[in-house]
Amino acid sequence: xxxxxxxxxxxxxxxxxxxxxxxxxxxxxxxxxxxxxxxxxxxxxxxxxxxxxxxxxxxxxxxxxxxxxxxxxxxxxxxxxxxxxxxxxxxxxxxxxxxxxxxxxxxxxxxxx
Amino acid sequence: xxxxxxxxxxxxxxxxxxxxxxxxxxxxxxxxxxxxxxxxxxxxxxxxxxxxxxxxxxxxxxxxxxxxxxxxxxxxxxxxxxxxxxxxxxxxxxxxxxxxxxxxxxxxxxxxx
Lengths: 113, 113
Description:
The complex is a heterodimer of chains A (about 110) and B (about 110).
Chain A: E1 4-7, E2 10-13, E3 19-25, E4 31-38, E5 42-51, E6 54-57, E7 64-66, E8 76-78, E9 87-94, E10 103-104, E11 108-112
Chain B: E1 3-5, E2 10-14, E3 19-21, E4 24-26, E5 32-38, E6 44-50, E7 56-58, E8 64-68, E9 73-78, E10 87-94, E11 101-103, E12 107-112
Parallel strand pairs in B: 2-12
Antiparallel strand pairs in B: 1-4, 3-9, 5-6, 5-10, 7-8, 8-9, 10-11, 10-12
């Protein structure tokens, strides 16, 4: 069965360290998205990609970067982790077309000390 | 720009009672509308979606939602809730010009035995 996976599921790091969160999907979807989920804010879009070598900034992109070298993966990098980036991060993918369902991964809980 | 408002942060209902979760959207044209559910510690799962046609949409797990253009609403309903329905529910709106969707801040549903 096709799926979308995230790793690690839990991560504790220190302020200033670089952190990379992995997202891998086997749906062969063109679109991939990264969100963060915080109490009182719901899900906010960090970065998204419509295909290989395409990346776009979402509403809360400062301090984050992504790259898309193949269809299956969209890793999210925190260049220099800050305590404000403590959150739960979700990756999602969808077929092209905004009427299409986004399929979500299980999430990564990141704590920055 | 599109936006979504879920007026209720928490809703508590008794098991077997009916449920209605409210969602209002802002968008200049007919949007794509979604309801997602998130069980504790899980990613989001699509319950139902609307993009055209019949304004009453049936979803999984016995849920339905009605699109009312005049009220800019897309409320979620279920005639009789089960303890397993306790979760967080997100309304979302998608624009027809790109593949992004914007999520509301969520409504947490609590079920009394």
